[in-house]
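W.,

You were right to be curious about this one. When I first looked at the sequence I had no strong expectations either way, so I just let the prediction run and decided to look at it fresh. Below is the sequence, 174 residues in total, followed by the output.
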Amino acid sequence: MKRSLLSWASLPLVAAVIVAADQWTKGWIEKSLPLGGSLAPVPALEPYFNLVHTNNTGAAFGLLQGYAGMFIIIALVVVAIVLFYARQLPASAWPVRIVLGIQLGGAVGNLIDRLQHQGAVTDFLLLTLPIGDRIYQWPAFNVADSSIVVGTILLGILMLRAEDKKPEVQQAEA
């Protein structure tokens, strides 16, 4: 009983940590930098990594600007699906619960922003990568965005590992 309770509690605990980190970092940026402002927290990395204060009313990479209502509905649906799916998992599936907690925390973090900021989320991490003779600037993102992406990648890895462990079904010889 104790083990299954701990397994189930891992999802909301991980999600709560992600939401807290996301909201704290966004709040710090909002108080420390004016909208459009920039800061190099590590001067030696300034050409590659900066903190910025931007608002994004779209999805990842600024796509679909102005569809805040749709993103709020999508976030609510994702939260409901994650919670429903997590209830179906056996207690031994704690790695999946942790990964779902990471994704849930990201979805809730951005949902909170959209509800508080008229459909916008605060983005603040900006990466610029020199590759060969070209410079690529990754669109600004935040802790919630990172959690959704990392959680999705980890869930894919867990699913692939689970597929590798399944015994192959042998076809009956005719």
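Here's what jumped out at me. The chain has four helices and four strands. And, maybe more interesting for your project: Helices lie at 2-32, 68-88, 94-116, 143-165.

Coffee later to discuss?

I.
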